[in-house]
């Protein structure tokens, strides 16, 4: 018998002062049995950090990357089903990222493992043609601390200023400082 997803719900209050994006985001997360708290919370953070300023063409949504190999962790599709933003989490191979760069207007990758520098050294030269790809590294000690926020029902505040994200659950705050490894500003 196959294992089923565990359902999590998050209410995110976003105040991104760098991009002037302010939103209340409600999201239901179907967590794959093999997904860790850390990876799930990185997906939630990526959702907040990638939330579109203009939602007239839809919003960023959690996709089925661990269930469906042709889907990313998150994506923003417009009402014509065109992929505006493809978001990956972790350390995918170069072929997956190049395929995504060909399918979407914009691609973001959020790498968070402590082995990211070694992985990036081996893959960076293979991605130079992907002009629409932005790669971010999240410090693993910060994402591990973020994993402690994983609850079946979450109320999170995400504030972004000067490239730094502050994530709070109302009791504890964690500073997350993404480092851009590649991509346009």
TrEMBL record:
It comes from the Bacteria. Pfam families: YaeQ. This is YaeQ family protein.
